[in-house]
Write a structure and sequence with these properties.
CATH class: Alpha Beta
Number of helices: 4
Radius of gyration: 15 Å
Order of helices and strands: EHHEEEHEHEE
Largest sheet: 7 strands, mixed
CATH topology: Aminopeptidase
Shape: globular
Number of domains: 1
Helix content: 25-40%
Number of strands: 7
CATH superfamily: Gcn5-related N-acetyltransferase (GNAT)
Strand content: 25-35%
CATH architecture: 3-Layer(aba) Sandwich
Length: 151
């Protein structure tokens, strides 16, 4: 795994086209442009992008709930994976939310996505349950993962 020199910054509406391009390449059932636009507009969301120059390499979409930060979408351009980009995005998210001691972090991940599960475990997430038939493209189950606030 080779680390990439990237800048992590908040995503903006001007980034939607680049976000969409990655999303469509990364997932069999991609989010719509309007779903991303909605999250970018929410004051309770933290949406971060990893940039190399003007090129978007990946992003994390995160929303605040009463008792947790819900990591809703993490994607890295398929041609740029395995370079530590997702790790950098999530670590930056943890830095930005560090002072919010009441909230942990939760996410869902396909049970077949062993690489993502391994990454989340390395970042302090633990399996906490299964959402049966969660993914609409093939009815695959999702593993629910949780990270304590001080992990």
């Amino acid at each position: 795994m080779t680390a990439v020199a990237v800048e992590i910054r908040r995503l903006e509406a001007a980034d939607l086209t680049a976000i969409e391009a990655i999303e469509q390449r990364a997932y069999p059932t991609p989010w719509s442009r309007s779903m991303f636009a909605s999250e970018l507009a929410k004051p309770t969301s933290i949406c971060l992008g990893a940039f190399e120059g003007d090129d978007l390499l990946g992003y994390v979409i995160n929303s605040r709930y009463v008792d947790a930060w819900h990591i809703m979408n993490v994607a890295v351009d398929p041609d740029r994976r395995r370079r530590g980009i997702a790790t950098r995005l999530l670590e930056r998210l943890f830095e930005l939310t560090r002072d919010d001691e009441r909230r942990g972090y939760t996410l869902e991940v396909r049970i077949s996505n062993e690489d993502a599960i391994r990454l989340y475990e390395q970042l302090g997430f633990e399996p906490r349950g299964i959402r049966r038939g969660y993914y609409t493209d093939n009815k695959e189950d999702a593993l629910i993962m949780w990270r304590e606030p001080a992990a």
